[in-house]
Design brief:
Layout (H helix, E strand, L loop, with lengths): L11 H23 L4 H23 E5 L5 E6 L12 H10 L4 H24 L9 H22 L7 H25 L5 E4 L2 E5 L27 H34 L1
Antiparallel strand pairs: 1-2, 3-4
Helix pairs in contact: 1-5, 2-3, 2-5, 3-4, 4-5, 4-6, 6-7
Length: 268
């Protein structure tokens, strides 16, 4: 069953946070359109939100470690908090977009960010892969960052800062597939598999493995999802997630693809 405890996926807290995010997104988009806020202003605000978001993440994922007498000697950052998910990596893209000059590169970057920020954040809020508790800063960071990212993604075409066309759509799909493939290598590089503990030639236990699944290329975001599961093996899962991703990207670009097609028809 999908219905779960209040602080889990599709629990009471999840629906409350979704309601807060929907209200935030709708009000923000109405105000941005009404007052015709410049895209660069929105981008600057989004950089500030990203910085605040990452600071919250850092405080949540920092773990102290101690010496043999119990004295804290330092801290380390848990690997699952690294910014390698599709939405987390947008933080880097936001800084690059804000700092680089207008031109072909920036146009391609913004064209990539429109569907990935919009669809990625929408999916993240719907699936909610964290423990959802109102007194936990990470829960607020998770939902408000993704809601802000969705607003930013939608404002790219709304502000008409770039022209989205078929060529940009194909470039975005190609880049996304490339990042997806790279994520498989990153997951393999960072993950630490469980190891057998052998003493005097006998297995006396197994160490606890540490696995990451950025881009969800090596593991589904949630157990028992329809289609996106490992019931038929990893290859079928990968093919399924790629097909769903391309279909979602196509839907997000459909108005622009139709406009491009009509322009093409007029030229012949």
């Amino acid at each position: 069953m999908f219905l779960a405890a209040a602080n889990k996926f599709l629990g009471t807290n999840h629906f409350i946070f979704l309601g807060i995010c929907i209200a935030y997104i709708v009000i923000a988009l109405i105000l941005l359109k009404k007052y015709k806020v410049s895209f660069n202003t929105v981008l600057t605000i989004m950089v500030g939100i990203a910085i605040a978001s990452e600071l919250v993440k850092i405080t949540e994922y920092i773990v102290p470690y101690y010496d043999e007498v119990g004295t804290m000697v330092g801290v380390y950052f848990e690997k699952e908090g690294l910014p390698f998910h599709l939405c987390s990596i947008q933080v880097i893209f936001l800084f690059v977009a804000r700092m680089c000059k207008d031109g072909s590169f920036k146009e391609k970057l913004l064209a990539f960010m429109y569907p990935t920020a919009f669809l990625g954040s929408l999916l993240a809020m719907m699936l909610a892969t964290i423990t959802i508790e109102f007194d936990r800063p990470l829960a607020w960071q998770y939902f408000l960052y993704h809601a802000s990212l969705l607003i930013y993604g939608l404002y790219i075409p709304m502000s008409k800062v770039i022209v989205i066309d078929t060529k940009k759509f194909l470039n975005t799909c190609l880049c996304l597939i490339g990042l997806f493939i790279v994520s498989i290598y990153i997951n393999g590089l960072i993950s630490v598999p469980a190891q057998e503990v052998i003493q005097n030639g006998e297995v006396i236990g197994v160490t606890e493995g540490l696995y990451v699944w950025f881009f969800y290329s090596t593991k589904p975001p949630i157990k028992n999802l329809p289609i996106l599961n490992l019931n038929n093996g990893w290859i079928v899962y990968i093919i399924s997630i790629l097909i769903i991703g391309i279909l979602a990207m196509t839907l997000a670009h459909l108005p622009f693809l139709i406009k491009d097609y009509k322009k093409y028809k007029k030229q012949i």
